[in-house]
Task: structure prediction
Amino acid sequence: MSTTSAPGPAADVDAAVVERARRGDQEAFAAVIRHYDAGLRALAFRLLGDRERMDDALQEAYVKAFRGLPRFRGRARVGTWLYRIVYNACLDELRRPAHRREVPLEDELAPSAPGGDPASVVARRGDLAAALAALAPEERAAVLLVDAQGFDYAEAARILAVPQGTIASRLNRARAALRRELGGEAA
Amino acid sequence: MRTLRDEELGAALRALETPEHAPGFHADLHRRLAQERPARRVDQHGRRAAGRGGLRWGLRVAVAAAVAAAVWLAAGLFEDERLPDVVEKATAAEIQAKVRTALAAAETLTGELVLRGRGYENAFGWEEARWRFALTARGDLRLTGLTLEDDLSYDARRGVQRTLNTSASSGEGLFAAERRGVAPGPPDPGPTDNLLERHFGALVRALLAADDPAVVETTYEGRPAWRLDVRAAVNRIVPEFSGDNFAIWVDRETGIPVRVVERKGERTLDELRIEELAVDEALPRRTFSLRFPAGMEVARSDDGFRRVQLGEAARAVGYAPLVPAWLPEGYALAEVAVAPGPGVPTGVEGGNPPSTGVVSLAYRRGLERILVTMRLRHVPGWADAWSDPLATGEGYVDRPETVRLRRGALSDVEAKVLVVPRNTPHLWALSDDLVVTVSGDLSRSGLVRVAESLRVSP
Result:
C-alpha cells in the first residue's frame, strides 16, 4: 500500500471549457463530460451491475449537472462535483422499486445478492468483480474512488458526503473482502 | 487525514472491464441537453418573448431543417444512433438535438418540398417536382402538387384521407378517393404519404441514422458548412435507382441540414431541398379536408380503424391493451384507434396473418410521434407464423438486433429491434397472445425502454 503513486483521477478539464459550459454552451459541456466519462462509467457500472442501468443513471446525472452547472461556484473541482452527482444518481437508480426485484441479466460478473457474505460469493464465483459487487454500494464506491481511481480521502468524502474517517473504515472493510479474491493478505 | 491506497487492488480493479455506452447514449444525451437549454436561458435572463416575426437567415434555415425532419417524422420515421468517434459523434448528436428541439416546439409547419434528380426522372418521367405541404402537431397533413396535379389531405382527428390524383393508368383525368378509418400509422397503413416516407424521410433520416458519417468542412451558398457522407444499403431489386450513400450539407452556424443528395458512388441520383418555409402559421381546419370537384365520382373505402377513448378499447377488441408506463418527457396520448378486423396483413408483402383485434396508440410531442400497436397473435385458420410487421421489404434485407425484454408485461419476451436509415425505427415482439410493436421517434434504447414499460391497461 502506498500513498498517491497510482493513476490519479482525471486531470481537471480546462477552466475555460468549464466556464463556457457554465454559460450554457452544450458542446463545451459535452467536452467536460467526455473528459470524465470513462471514470464515471466505471463507477456507475460497478455500482449498478449492468450497462443499461449505468446509462440510465449517467443520463440523469449528466442532465442534472447541465442544469446545475450555472450554480457551480468552483469551490470543489468540477470532476469531484460530477462524481457526486453521478454517485447520487446511482443510489437513486438502486432505490428504484422496479430494480429491487431484478436479477441483472447481462452482467455475468455481478452476483444477485448484494449484502451477502463476500467470502462465500468469491468462493462461488472466483471473481474479483463478483466480490466487488457483493460489497455494500457505499463500500464499493469508496474502494473504487480511492484505490481504483486515485481520489484522496478528502475528495472521496466530498463525493460520498461522509467524513473522511468513514471513508477509511469503508475502505478497510472493502479491501479485506477483495483481498481474499486477490489471494493476498488483508489490506 | 493521510490517504492510504492499495495499489495492487487498485490495479486489479482498474483491469476490470467497463462497457462503453450503449449505441445512442450520446445522441439521447445531446437531445436532452438541447431541451434543457431554453429553460436555462429563462433561469439566467428572465422570460423573453420568442418573437417569430422577421426571421433571419439562420432561423429560416433552422426552420427548413425542422420541416425536413418534421415531414419525415410525420411519416412515422426516425433515427438511428450509432455514431462515429467522439468528435463526430458530438457533432451528429448536436444536429439531432437542434432539429428535435424545433420539432418538439412546433405546432404547424408549411413550405414547399422540391425533389430533383436522375432517379425520379428515370423512374417517373420528370426532372423536378414540387409540392406545397402543411403539417400539424396533431398529425394532419396536406400535400398539394405544384408540378403535378395531385392533392392529398389527411385529417388525423377523424382518420380520413382524401386524394385527387392524375390517373395512374392513363395519365389523364383525375381520380378522387376517400379513405375512412385510416390507422394512425405503421405497421398498419396510415395516410398515403409514400413520397414523404420513402424519399424525403429517408434522406433526412440518413443524416441522423448515420453509423459511419465522414465529416468534411465545406461551404454551402457561401456559408460555412459540414458535409456528412453516409453509407446506405442498396436495394437489391432496383439497385440502379438506389443510392449507396448520402451527402448532407449542414450549416455550421446553426447545425442544420440545408441540402441532401442521394448518390450511387459519385453519381448523383436525387437532390432534395425545402423552400418557402414557415413555422406555426395558422392553418384553417379545411386545409386538411380536401374538397372534391362537384359531380366527381369518388372511390370510397374504409380501413376499419375507429377513434375511441382508451377505456373503450378493451371492449372493442376483447382484451385489455398494453400501455407504456414510460415515454420520453413531453409525450402525450394523442390517438387511440381500434380495428377488430380482420384487416390488412402486415409484414413483407403482407405475409403475416390478417390483423385482428388491433389497438393503435399514438403519442405525440409537437411534431414527434411514437406508435405502440398490438394485435392478436392467433388468427383462426392461419398458421402462427409472424415476421416483422414493419419489415423494410421491397428489396431491402433487414438484420434486426435480438433483445430479451426484462420487465413489464413483456418480461422475458424476445424482441427484435431494427434501426436503419430506410425504415421506421421499431421493435416488435410476440407475447403469448399478442403481436406488439413500438415505433417512431425513439432511439434503440428508447424503443427497448418503452417496450419494457408496457403494462396491461387498468
User: Anything to note?
Assistant: Chain B touches chain A at residues 1-14, 16, 18-22, 25-26, 28-30, 32-34, 36-37, 39-41, 43-44, 86, 90, 93-94, 97, 404, 406-407, 445, 448 (CB under 8 Å). Chain B has eight helices and 22 strands. The two ends of chain B are 57 Å apart (CA to CA). The first strand of chain B starts at residue 108 and ends at 116.
